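Lab notes, practical 5.
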Amino acid sequence: HIARGEVVESDPPRKLVYTWGWEGANEVPPGTSRIELLLTPQGDGTHLRLTHSHLPSEASGESHTQGWDHYLARLAIAAAGGDPGPDPWAQAA
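Output from the prediction step:
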């Protein structure tokens, strides 16, 4: 799967907003949804708030939530200096 989008707002290192969509997809084509990342200091680390909006249906929202949960968990491991190992979702492709 290939995701594509454009940055619409950037305020380093606090905020990034970009459009999102899947090439060749009818339900969520590129540019139709929006992702906002807000980063705030928290203790010795950083708190990330991710909002994915403008998805066309509840089912699409649930599907994208599963994907974000999967990859954000892997990002947390890598950001802490760990190795999340091979991505089982990439292995299945």
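Observations recorded by the TA: The two ends are 9 Å apart (CA to CA). Residues 25 and 55 are 13 Å apart (CA to CA).
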